[in-house]
């Protein structure tokens, strides 16, 4: 699958600072439901993400340890079950205090175009920096039940972009897998467009947004997605190499 993109060289792993643990326990709800093996991999990925990226503050923001740790851990959640340890083309993270204000043209979920300053929770462009709103990052980490997570969303876009095309289909390794992916995702995307879906309406914007929003639901509301979109859930479970619904039920029962 993504193993062809694996780094060919080995580097000493950056250290996970034990002080980060209390930040994650307190402010990242998913951290407390990971098992021992998952935690070990997440600590490695989080430390590597922090070390590998340039961190830039915007709009009076200050890059603190908490900012780096919360963004790195949430981005790493997408890599948890993948065969890669990094997002490759991502080298820079820009963090704004609240909404990210960008000038440009944007198409809404309803299909209307608008010009001017956009207020966004985040933005991911191919090979560019990932831009995030700190208030949205914090909210997403603490409240998975709210469904939205800007960090999952923007880094899902970056996985989608790994093959050079932003089309809602990350690299899957074979034409057969890509055909199977389309056979599941296309009707699920059509259900969002007709309002017959548990995914939030923004998923109807285009197929790339569909994948990013579906990723948020897969990690945040897996118990809902597995019931209402079982085929889509199974595709995402297969791609991401993790089963958040099983993890959630294991935690709930325990
Ligand atoms: Zn998006």
In short:
With 254 residues, the chain is α/β, with parallel strands linked by helices.
Give the arrangement of secondary structure elements.
Layout: H1 19-27, H2 36-52, E1 54-57, H3 65-79, E2 92-96, E3 100-103, E4 106-107, E5 113-114, E6 117-120, E7 122-124, E8 130-133, H4 134-142, H5 150-160, H6 175-193, H7 207-220, H8 222-228, H9 230-240, H10 244-253
Parallel strand pairs: 1-2, 2-8
Antiparallel strand pairs: 3-6, 4-5, 7-8
Helix pairs in contact: 1-3, 2-3, 3-4, 3-5, 5-7, 7-8, 8-9
The protein binds zinc ion (ZN).
Structure description:
This protein has one domain (2-253): 3-Layer(aba) Sandwich (Collagenase (Catalytic Domain)), CATH 3.40.390. The protein is globular and about 45 Å long. Helices cover 48% and strands 11% of the residues. It is built from 10 helices and 8 strands. Strand 1, helix 3 and strand 2 (92-96) form a beta-alpha-beta unit. The strands form 3 sheets. Strands 1-2-8-7 form a 4-stranded mixed sheet. A two-stranded antiparallel ribbon has the order 3-6. A two-stranded antiparallel sheet has the order 4-5. The chain is of the alpha/beta class. Zinc ion binds next to helix 5 and helix 7.
């Amino acid at each position: 699958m993504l193993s062809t993109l694996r780094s060919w060289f080995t580097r000493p792993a950056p250290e996970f600072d034990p002080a980060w643990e209390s930040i994650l326990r307190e402010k990242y709800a998913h951290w407390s439901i990971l098992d021992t093996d998952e935690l070990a991999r997440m600590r490695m990925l989080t430390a590597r993400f922090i070390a590998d990226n340039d961190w830039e503050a915007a709009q009076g923001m200050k890059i603190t340890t908490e900012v780096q740790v919360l963004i790195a851990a949430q981005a790493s959640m997408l890599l948890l079950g993948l065969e890669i340890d990094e997002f490759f083309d991502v080298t820079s993270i820009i963090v704004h205090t609240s909404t990210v204000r960008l000038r440009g043209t944007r198409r809404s979920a309803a299909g209307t175009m608008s010009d001017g300053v956009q207020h966004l929770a985040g933005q991911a462009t191919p090979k560019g920096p990932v831009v995030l709103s700190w208030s949205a990052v914090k909210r997403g980490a603490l409240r998975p039940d709210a469904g939205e997570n800007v960090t999952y969303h923007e880094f899902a876009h970056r996985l989608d972009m790994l093959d050079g095309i932003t089309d809602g289909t990350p690299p899957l390794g074979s034409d057969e897998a890509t055909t199977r992916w389309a056979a599941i995702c296309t009707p699920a995307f059509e259900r969002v467009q007709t309002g017959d879906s548990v995914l939030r309406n923004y998923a109807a914007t285009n197929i790339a947004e569909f994948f990013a929003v579906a990723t948020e639901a897969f990690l945040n509301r897996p118990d809902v997605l597995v019931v209402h979109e079982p085929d889509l859930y199974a595709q995402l479970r297969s791609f991401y190499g993790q089963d958040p619904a099983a993890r959630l039920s294991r935690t709930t029962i325990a």
